[in-house]
Specification:
It contains three helices and seven strands, in the order E-E-E-E-H-E-E-E-H-H. A hairpin with a 7-residue loop joins strand 5 and strand 6. It has 144 residues and is α+β, with helices and mostly antiparallel strands.
């Protein structure tokens, strides 16, 4: 059975040190792809952009800097854990987003109630949907 968790979070898109603006970001977690979360950024004047990356990366990034390559997540201040930075990079292009930690933790808590961390592989239909999920991820990357 396919189940999902969704939330909308307002994040700041940090264009430069002097310029940022708030945008809605849709967070989605689906049992068909139990290891990943999807963030869809609704940038003004552009088509929405979706990034998929490991749920565990987002969980870990709330409390400490983590990630390598295209996606990095880190708390703004590890002592207060009030805000999180999410850096997305493709080649030399990058985008930086700042979010309040509380709505991310609330979303992650809901995903954990649906599929507890470490239990992703126990989903009975995971193997049956793996090929479909991989095809969808490759299609998203080709379209992006």
């Amino acid at each position: 059975m396919r189940e999902s968790v969704q939330a909308e979070v307002m994040m700041s898109f940090l264009v430069s040190e002097e310029l940022s603006f708030r945008i809605p970001v849709e967070l989605r977690y689906d049992t068909c792809d139990p290891y990943a979360v999807r963030l869809t950024f609704h940038l003004p004047g552009d088509a929405p952009v979706t990034w998929a990356f490991g749920r565990e990366l987002l969980v870990d990034g709330v409390g400490r800097p983590c990630g390598e390559g295209d996606v990095r997540v880190a708390p703004v201040d590890p002592d207060t854990l009030g805000e999180v930075l999410i850096r997305l990079q493709v080649g030399s292009d990058q985008a930086l987003f700042r979010s309040s930690t509380a709505p991310l933790v609330a979303f992650l808590d809901r995903t954990d109630k649906l599929v507890p961390l470490g239990q992703e592989g126990a989903l009975a239909d995971f193997d049956a949907h793996l090929e479909d999920v991989l095809d969808r991820i490759l299609a998203e990357q080709s379209a992006g």
